[in-house]
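Dear support,

We are seeing what looks like truncated structure output for some complexes. This example has two components. We would appreciate it if you could run it in full and send us the complete token output so we can diff it against ours.
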Amino acid sequence: MAVDKNMKVLIVDDYKTMLRIVRNLLKQLGFMNVDEATDGSMALQLLRNAQYGLVISDWNMEPMTGLQLLKEVRADAKLKGVPFIMVTAESKSENVIAAKEAGVSNYIVKPFNAETLKTKMSSVLGDF
Amino acid sequence: MPGKAVDRDLEQRLSEIRESSGGSVRVDQIGEVVQSLLDSLKGDLTSADLRIYQELEGLAAYIRAAKAEIAQLRPQDIKEHFISSASDELDAIVEATESATNDILDAVEAIEAVAAEAPEEINQKLSDLTTRIYEACNFQDITGQRITKVVRALKHIEDKIESLVKALGGEAAEAAASPDGQPPAFFTHGGEGEQELLNGPQVSAKANKQDDIDALFSSFD
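Here is the complete output from our reference environment:
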């Protein structure tokens, strides 16, 4: 099934420049319907009020981290199926394992390039 | 018996320190206790007493010397000038890189808007180039996170120095103060003449703006 590029994508990062970079890269990939949140709790609020086809989240944020957000999403009956990609500078094996155990769909280590973002999105959503 | 009275005094003093300190004892308080102990040993001394007396006297001298050496390091200066200023400088780096990154992104978005009106082939080439710029701008997030870690480490060192200054007591804090109240030369290039004037970029909140410079410059006319 073809990927619907009109789906809503939520990007979560406490660095506003990072939100801007990811938004622009998504735009180049054809995903124009993008919302932003600067921490996990703001993201959770947005997720509960609209239907998103993908979450791309940083890990290291306050007060709610990306991992806590992921756990909340997976524990919520309405949200648990939303694809969730972690994009983070946290590159230790234990981080990746913790995210995987919490149900992350894929994991991108910063700094990343556009090709990696596209590849990981394809592996989660299907080819586009 | 005078010896027993001294023991009781000493016991009382130790008990007071234990209650008031909550577990951490200042170096000068240790000195007081050692001194009381030495006083209690005066009188008829056996050779064993004498050995203990000498050991304790050595210990008291060691503590005094350590206290003086640490005071010479001026820990208060390290806390108030070095660490505080280093944290400000690092915060300024984060702000400056964020601001520069936003300027770059503004320019790239403007290029993309122009590219959208260009022929397909040129549009594609420009798009590939702007993608590379977006990728390169990742640096701001990574450097920001690394600097935040360094600032946390500095805060930890600052807390430790605070404890050290407290442990040394008031005398050491006085000795630690900069005699002229000026920040140490670390934040200037040091030396004499022109070298003394060179301080590097200022933290933006404290720096003169161009308007301030112009006003100062004009004031000489």
